[in-house]
């Protein structure tokens, strides 16, 4: 700063110098304040930008909040529908399990009936009785190779068992004409059909089991006839006579 030649002893000169000093100090202060204002303006712009960003973020969050709420309500509705579907599926599963059990039971019943029918078909065949003769008749002494037994060991004749029933006409089972002087031949198939139709299923099963034991040599002809007489009873004496004739015809 250039120094002017002042006479500081003069009051006017002193006043002028004081004013200049004040002006320079004011100018420095103004410059400093202007710089601070610029800095504050920059800071304010930054704050405005931040506020604007925050406003945008807030708006986005508000939109996301609304969308999340709508999605949550939609999920609740879907959950309710899923529970309904699950309940319906459980009911269907129970119905299917019940149907499955019924079908399996029916299949088992059918298999049991088929097995029973197979046994019945085998027993209804005349060949079955012929096949039993080597296993039973020979042992009981009724076959062609019959041995003479002492009177006290000889098996009773078939008439001894049949005499327990009253004499009635020939049964309704199908018969085949015999030779001259012989009794009509009972047809095995027709006899078992008739027995199956007239006997309760439990009694018929007992009857079949008795015949199986006879065939397996587990019991004698007389024991088989006694069991048959109990199964048939007096009201089915005709069936008993047909069965006895069937055994006799096949040498059993």
Automatic annotation (TrEMBL):
<protein>
    <recommendedName>
        <fullName>At4g15545-like C-terminal domain-containing protein</fullName>
    </recommendedName>
</protein>
<dbReference type="InterPro" id="IPR058935">
    <property type="entry name" value="At4g15545-like_C"/>
</dbReference>
<keyword id="KW-0175">Coiled coil</keyword>
<dbReference type="InterPro" id="IPR058936">
    <property type="entry name" value="At4g15545-like"/>
</dbReference>
<feature type="domain" description="At4g15545-like C-terminal">
    <location>
        <begin position="185"/>
        <end position="250"/>
    </location>
</feature>
<feature type="coiled-coil region">
    <location>
        <begin position="23"/>
        <end position="78"/>
    </location>
</feature>
<dbReference type="Pfam" id="PF25972">
    <property type="entry name" value="At4g15545_C"/>
</dbReference>
């Amino acid at each position: 700063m250039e120094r002017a030649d002042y006479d500081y002893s003069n009051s006017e000169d002193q006043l002028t110098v004081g004013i200049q000093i004040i002006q320079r100090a004011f100018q420095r202060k103004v410059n400093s304040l202007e710089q601070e204002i610029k800095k504050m303006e920059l800071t304010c712009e930054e704050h405005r930008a931040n506020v604007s960003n925050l406003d945008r973020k807030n708006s986005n969050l508000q939109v996301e909040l609304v969308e999340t709420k709508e999605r949550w309500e939609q999920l609740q509705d879907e959950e309710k529908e899923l529970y309904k579907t699950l309940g319906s599926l459980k009911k269907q599963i129970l119905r299917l399990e019940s149907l499955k059990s019924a079908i399996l039971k029916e299949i088992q019943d059918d298999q049991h009936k088929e097995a029973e029918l197979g046994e019945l078909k085998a027993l209804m065949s005349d060949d079955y009785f012929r096949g039993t003769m080597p296993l039973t008749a020979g042992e009981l002494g009724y076959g062609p190779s019959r041995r003479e037994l002492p009177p006290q060991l000889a098996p009773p004749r078939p008439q001894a068992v049949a005499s327990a029933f009253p004499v009635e006409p020939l049964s309704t089972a199908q018969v085949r004409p015999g030779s001259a002087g012989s009794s009509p031949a009972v047809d095995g198939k027709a006899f078992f059909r008739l027995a199956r139709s007239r006997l309760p299923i439990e009694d018929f099963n007992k009857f079949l089991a008795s015949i199986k034991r006879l065939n397996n040599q587990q019991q004698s002809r007389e024991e088989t006839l006694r069991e048959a007489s109990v199964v048939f009873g007096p009201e089915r004496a005709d069936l008993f006579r047909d069965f006895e004739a069937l055994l006799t015809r096949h040498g059993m």
